[in-house]
Structures are given as structure tokens and as C-alpha cells.
Specification:
With about 110 residues, the chain is an all-alpha fold. The chain has one domain: Alpha-helical ferredoxin (Fumarate Reductase Iron-sulfur Protein, Chain B, domain 2). Helices cover about 55% and strands about 0% of the residues. α1 runs antiparallel to α5. The N and C termini lie close together (about 5 Å). The mean pLDDT is about 95. The structure holds iron/sulfur cluster (2 copies). The site of one iron/sulfur cluster has 15 residues, from α2, α3 and α5.
Length: about 110
């Protein structure tokens, strides 16, 4: 089945808007622990993805926030809203790739 970029965007957005920004996911993130900057943690990354998909923002700091995720999945074990940030980050990277190439999702 082929999924459009628009459908992928909606799928990611549906998950992102569940975030209440409680921050419970943050204490387990190894990158946030090392870098001591909120945009290097799962909550910051959820924010960054929303800034891009909803508001069209994409700067170097936003890219750094996304590409410094290790994909360890620790954050997903803590989320009270059932969000899996690492899966969303992976999907978002795929979305960005597709946006830059104009390809569809298979
Ligand atoms: S998957 Fe990414 S955001 Fe989540 S805890 Fe690991 S490094 Fe942090
Ligand atoms: S634990 Fe879930 S709801 Fe809370 S800030 Fe993290 S991703 Fe958002």
C-alpha cells in the first residue's frame, strides 16, 4: 500500500498533539542527560516536530534536536499519553526525506 506524504504528516501530527508536555519522559533520555538542554530531550523533540509540521519552521537547531536522538526508546516507556517519541522521530526523519525528494511512502 502506498501512503502519501500528507497522510504520513497527519499520522505523525495525530500522535504529537497528544503530548501534554508533562516532561515525564525527560529523565530517562541519555542525550538530554549529557547535553543539559531541553531541545535534546524527547519533549523538546516532540515540540520541534510540531513546530515544523504545524508552523513550517525548520532551522539548524531544530534539525539538531531531531538528529541527535539515539532511538533508544527509553522515553516511550515513560509516556503517560502513550506516545512513542522515538517512533515519531523515526517517522519524522522519513517524512523529511520524502519531503526533500518528493517520493511516496510504501
Ligand atoms: S529515543 Fe531519543 S528522545 Fe527518546 S530517550 Fe532515547 S535518545 Fe532520548
Ligand atoms: S511523557 Fe509523553 S506527554 Fe509527557 S512530555 Fe513526554 S511525550 Fe509528552
Amino acid at each position: 500500500m502506498v501512503e502519501s506524504i500528507g497522510d504520513l504528516r497527519i499520522k505523525i501530527m495525530r500522535e504529537l498533539i497528544k503530548c501534554s508536555y508533562c516532561g515525564f519522559c525527560e529523565w530517562v533520555c541519555p542525550v538530554l542527560s549529557a547535553m543539559k538542554r531541553r531541545d535534546y530531550g524527547p519533549r523538546g523533540r516532540v515540540n520541534a516536530m510540531l513546530f515544523h509540521l504545524r508552523d513550517g519552521l525548520m532551522g539548524e537547531s531544530l534539525k539538531e534536536s531531531i538528529y541527535t536522538c539515539l532511538g533508544c526508546g527509553s522515553c516511550s516507556t515513560q509516556c503517560i499519553a502513550g506516545i512513542k517519541p522515538e517512533e515519531l522521530i523515526r517517522s519524522f526523519k522519513h517524512y523529511m526525506y520524502l519531503s526533500s525528494t518528493g517520493k511516496s511512502v510504501t
